[in-house]
Each structure stands twice: as C-alpha cells, then as structure tokens.
Write a structure and sequence with these properties.
The protein is an alpha+beta fold. The chain is built from 18 helices and 14 strands. α8 links the parallel β5 and β6. The two termini are 42 Å apart.
C-alpha cells in the first residue's frame, strides 16, 4: 500500500543569510584557517557557519542550536549532515579551534572579500568601542585569552565583569571592517594607535580619514596618525585650553560664524537644524580647530539647563519648611544642604541664607515655674531662612555658548565637509546597538574565555553581514526611487529597512514537501509573495536562492 507524507520545514531568512555568507566565501575561509580533524562527522567550518547563521537569524545558546537547525532540516538526511550532529559539544570544540586559529588573517580576508564584492569605499573609517558584559565570576582566566575584568561599564553594570569591544566601520553603508578585543579595564584612549596601525595594514594605505570620539584627542594619538601620513577628525573635550579660551571670548564678544548647511531634524518633524562654523587659530602642531554651532544642540543645551534650574528651585522650595529643625538647625548645615541642591547650577542661582536673632527667657532651675524659687536666664535664639534669585547675567553668558562643540582635524577639507564626516559617527553607535539588541551579544552562555573570544569574532562576522544587507537594500531603494516598503507589522511602511524588519517579514516562509513511500515527489517554497520577491530583488539575491531549494538546502558547502 502506498504511503504519502506531507512535510513542512522552516525557511524564513536563512537562504538570504547563506547567500551573503557565500559571497564572502566564509565556508572556504573557515576551512582554510580552522581545518577539521580527519574522519570527523562535521567539519569545523560547517559548525562555525551554523553558529554565524544562528546569531543572525535567531541567536540561540549552543545547547539549543541543534533544535533550531532541525526546523530547517528534513530530519531524514543520512549521515553526516543531520541537524543533531551540531550539538553543544561539537560547536564548543569548533569555537576552541577558532580561538587557536589565525583569526586576524581570517578577519582580514573576510573584510577584503566584503570590500571587493560590495565595492565598499574605504576613504573614511569610524571607530568606537563598547563593553560586553558578563554575569558570573570567571575566576580562572585563560592566560592567552582576553581578560574579563571590572571597568567603566557602558551597560551600567559596574558589578559585572566585561571586555572592551572596539569596532571600525566604513562611512559607506556603515559596514564593519575590523574589530579588536581589549581587557575589561582598558581605557579607550590607549586603543587608538594599535587600532589605526591595524587599519593601515588592512587597507594597505594611510590616506583614509580616521573618525573617533574625544578619546582620540590625545596628543600622542594625533601625532602618531599625523606623522605616519594619516588623517583624523575628532571632537575636542571641553576642558582643553583652546576651548575654554573661546568660550570665555564668546561670553562678551560675537564670533564671525559661517553658515554651512541646513538639515531636517531626525527627532522632530518639520523642524530644521542649522549648522554654522568658525575656524579658530590652529594648535601649536598645526591642527585645525573648527567650532560648530548647531541650532538643535542650542535648544537642547538651553532645555537641559532650564530643567536643572527648575529642579533646583523645586528642591529649594521643599527645603524651606524643613529649616530650623533636626539636622537643619545651624547655618552650616543649611549651607551644606543648599550647596548639594545647587551643585550643578551654582552659577545660575544665588542663594542667600538669612539669620534672625531674638532674645528668649530660659528657665534654669528644675521643677514647676515659681516666682520665688525658679531661676531664669536670657539667651539668644537663632532662626534661619533662605532666599534665592536667578543670576540673569550668568544665564545670558551661558546662553552665548549653547549649541557649540569643537572639532579638531589635520585634513584640508572645508569646515562644512569636516562636520559632515563627523556626523556619520552616530551610525557606529547604531551598529553597537544592533550587536547588543538585534543580535543579542549578551548574555553569553559560555564558561571559557577563549570560547567567548572566538564567539565574539563570529558576532563581528554576523554584524558585517547584517550591515551589508541593510546597505544593499537602502542603496537600491534610492537607486530605484522607492521611498518606502510596507514590511513592518500590520503592513506599515519603513523608509530605511533594518535587518530586524526584514527578518520579521520573512518569518512565515516555509518549505513544503510531499513524500511517496519515503521518496519526494513534489516540493515547493510556500509563503513568498510579490513583496518578498521585490525585497530579494533589492538585495540582489537571485530568484533560485528561494525557488530551487532542495531537501538539504540548509547545509553549508564550499563555494
């Protein structure tokens, strides 16, 4: 009797991810740098590709990856390709092998493939760092691995150990080019020289603009880049002498600002942000200092200052009925409380403590008052009150420096172009956000530091692939003049599709197969509509990637 069986397996975005991974020749690179043991049931290369795809698609801990992979496989495949082979032990061994491999050369080749395949521009590179937080003691560090230590935690978890994750991205699509791990207690300012040297070796040139935050603005860092023929743009900390002098000058004088450009506010609809620049005298080393005035930052600075003032005034009003009692009896105690309240706005609020004195009669003898036996003494009693008013002159002087921030560079670009280059820096923070939220780099369910270090390498590769996908779809939308795509929940539109949006929209695509006596007689990919096909077209994914899937399509092979 003939037996028919219907089978359904998940597809979603995995074919898309495999296509982009194949473009970077990741399986070949893993095979080259992380060769597997002879006669092994699954190569390290395949395990590492599975791990990378899992990070991008769903990000499960090691012990759940075989269950995740089983959703795509038909569970009928013969050895050695069935999903259950990729258990947590095998994947952990592959991570250990990756740690022992030459990961720097592997990263260099992967980045070179991305640059060549996607025609990435590398004339401008942005750098920033963040922390990856780990919950646990990790008391037995591996001497060869990065050290998990306490430090300045950017996740606001100073109680947890961490590593510092430095990332470099292009301005062209904000695609990661390289990364570096540092011990958890490493300060950002000492990472820039080795990072710049690594970028120079990766790109094979010095003539690229290196953009970073204010930690780059150390004399040793700037001099190293300049002496080696490099270019830089960074922001100058407010505590520097040049900045303080300019702010003092502005309090009583007007600067000749030059209007450079106007942009639409990304936070408030129908509001424009105007930028002006003023180029001051160069530093002793000849580096240019460009002061920038932003109308949006001016409003923000004014609003933050007013919010602090309102908060201080409110606390002073709450303090008034508490005076002359408990721990607020003396003038010294009251002054301490007032200074604490006005600490951040002491230049803008003048508080005066008023002391009143009056004579009181105090009974000295014990017992009930009596005209004959009771003894009295006159003493001075003190009561305190406070008055305050705003320092209008200080507020006016402060308002003259609102919206201003200084940049320093050794480029010959126009001041407006220097600002435009620096304004790409927040996109790097978006990439850090993607790593921590969409790809969920933490929590890490690993005990050995060397495996953690290897896993973070795979997160870098995953972030590169996600960035390439976002770059490609946005670039082709602009080329084909497509303003928005309805791929959000409830068919809402998005002007700038993210990987999270794409992953959500492809979630219901599946692979359907009908078997007759154990033999496939019909198969098809279900759930694809015209909008899915349009997205694939914008991503430049060939139609056969989805339309010609076979029973073992989820395997990673050499390209």
């Amino acid at each position: 009797m003939e037996q028919f069986e219907a089978q359904f397996n998940q597809v979603d975005v995995l074919p898309m991810v495999k296509h982009y991974m194949d473009e970077l020749h990741l399986f070949n690179l893993f095979t080259k740098y992380v060769p597997g043991a002879p006669n092994s049931l699954a190569e390290h290369a395949e395990s590492l590709c599975v791990l990378t795809a899992n990070i991008i698609c769903e990000n499960k801990p090691l012990y759940k990856i075989q269950d995740w992979l089983a959703k795509y496989s038909d569970d009928l495949a013969a050895e050695p390709v069935e999903a259950k082979l990729f258990n947590d032990d095998r994947l952990a061994r592959s991570l250990s092998a990756l740690f022992e491999a030459d990961r720097h050369s592997l990263m260099t080749e992967a980045s070179a493939n991305a640059i060549a395949t996607h025609d990435l521009l590398t004339d401008e590179v942005h750098n920033d760092s963040t922390t990856v937080t780990f919950i646990g003691k990790y008391d037995n560090p591996d001497p060869q691995a990065v050290k998990l230590k306490h430090g300045h935690n950017k996740d606001f978890r100073p109680d947890c150990k961490q590593v510092v994750f430095g990332l470099n991205i292009t301005s062209d699509g904000h695609v990661p080019l390289s990364y570096e791990l540092f011990d958890g207690n490493t300060c950002d300012d000492v990472t820039h020289i080795p990072n710049w040297n690594g970028l120079r070796a990766l790109l094979g040139k010095e003539q690229f603009i290196y953009v970073a935050d204010c930690k780059l603005c150390g004399q040793d860092n700037l001099d190293h880049i300049d002496k080696n023929g490099g270019l830089f743009i960074t922001i100058v900390p407010k505590g520097r002498k040049e900045v303080k002098l300019f702010y003092q000058y502005l309090k009583k004088n007007d600067a000749e600002w030059k209007h450079v450009f106007v942009t639409e506010s990304s936070r408030k609809k129908n509001k424009l942000n105007t930028y002006k620049t003023y180029e001051a005298e160069p530093t002793q080393k000849g580096y240019r200092i460009i002061f920038v005035h932003s109308s949006a930052k001016q409003d923000d600075d004014k609003g933050r200052r007013q919010k602090k003032i309102d908060k201080a005034v409110s606390q002073l009003e709450e303090l008034v009925p508490k005076l002359n009692a408990y721990h607020l009896k003396t003038k010294k105690e009251i002054k301490t409380a007032v200074d604490s309240i006005c600490k951040s706005v002491q230049d803008f609020i003048d508080v005066k403590i008023i002391t009143e004195r009056k004579q009181v009669r105090v009974k000295l003898s014990p017992g009930r008052p009596s005209r004959r036996k009771s003894e009295y003494k006159n003493k001075w009693a003190y009561s305190h009150s406070i008055e305050w008013k705003l320092n209008e002159k200080a507020l006016l002087e402060a308002s003259r420096t609102d919206g201003i921030f200084p940049l320093i560079t050794n480029t010959s670009l126009e001041a407006g172009d220097v600002l435009k280059r620096y304004k790409n820096q927040p996109f790097l923070e978006k990439r850090m956000y993607t790593k921590k939220t969409v790809l969920e780099v933490a929590p890490v369910f690993l005990k050995k530091e060397k495996r953690i270090e290897a896993m973070l390498f795979l997160y870098f590769i995953a972030l590169m692939i996600v960035s390439l996908i976002e770059r490609k779809i946005r670039m082709n939308m602009a080329k084909e003049e497509i303003e928005q795509l309805p791929i959000l929940p409830q068919k809402m539109n998005t002007k700038k599709p993210t990987w999270s949006n794409i992953r959500y929209y492809f979630r219901n695509i599946h692979y359907s197969k009908i078997n007759k006596n154990g033999i496939c007689i019909q198969s098809a990919v279900k759930g694809l509509n015209s909008l899915h096909e349009q997205v694939c077209s914008l991503l430049e994914i060939p139609s056969e990637v989805y339309n010609t899937l076979h029973g073992r399509w989820w395997q990673f092979r050499a390209t």
